[in-house]
């Protein structure tokens, strides 16, 4: 396992701030393009996604890594065996099912405290080219470029303060950048697993495979489920609360055995993936406080993310 002499915490936080600022620019660009008549919105959305991931996540991380002594090895771009990759894909599938069940409980909790979850259905293009474009935006681009930032640069920088600490912080930063309250179960559970995979296997490809399979399966299942319903049935389901869609409170309780089963399956698949892997090391020295510049950059990024959470909360709870 290569010695951690990589990116500084200041540079890593600056990359995170750049990603957060990129979201603002992306939204402004999307709003501007939406006013252009005759524009193919699907193509425009795809181009914006490619531009965001390449310019605000991928390029800054890769260029920064190439300038350091360790080069791309500092990002843990190290190969893993095919058998391990297949196990990671299975782990991603099990985690997706677990997250889906946990999300049902989370949505029911949001509704119980007065929230009205908005429709989160993904676009379902009719053509194969449109579907391929959505898979690119939803699975491939995040699976590569988000991992370069979060489990590449950020995990490497925060790892100097301890492996467990790095897993917790980067998972929270990962969830924060997404800016969605309803997506928290998915982001927190999958984010922690991906960080642990990278630390234990010393390869960023582990989280890239997990992320791409997880998002791709999520979209594929949604696409298939929507194809089974007529437009009228889709509207009827969308009008129901989570508890109503499950047939009442008893239906929600019946999810508990499945949740426990897939939690165990996820755990055992994770253990199989990291068997003979590296331990998650804790910091042997006392953590020193961040200097004011590093802290200021991090706070600026979190404030930007917080704005999205406030807007999301207003959409759910009616402000």
TrEMBL record:
Pfam families reported for this sequence: Rce1-like (PF02517)
GO biological process, any: CAAX-box protein maturation
Annotated transmembrane regions: 12-33, 45-65, 86-109, 129-150, 162-182, 249-270, 291-311
Domain of life: Bacteria
GO molecular function, one term: endopeptidase activity
Keywords noted in UniProt: Hydrolase, Membrane, Metalloprotease, Protease, Transmembrane, Transmembrane helix
Membrane among keywords: yes
Domain CAAX prenyl protease 2/Lysostaphin resistance protein A-like stretches: 132-216
Matches recorded under PANTHER family: CAAX AMINO TERMINAL PROTEASE FAMILY PROTEIN (PTHR36435:SF1), SLR1288 PROTEIN (PTHR36435)
Name of the molecule in the record: CPBP family intramembrane metalloprotease
Organism: Candidatus Alectryocaccomicrobium excrementavium
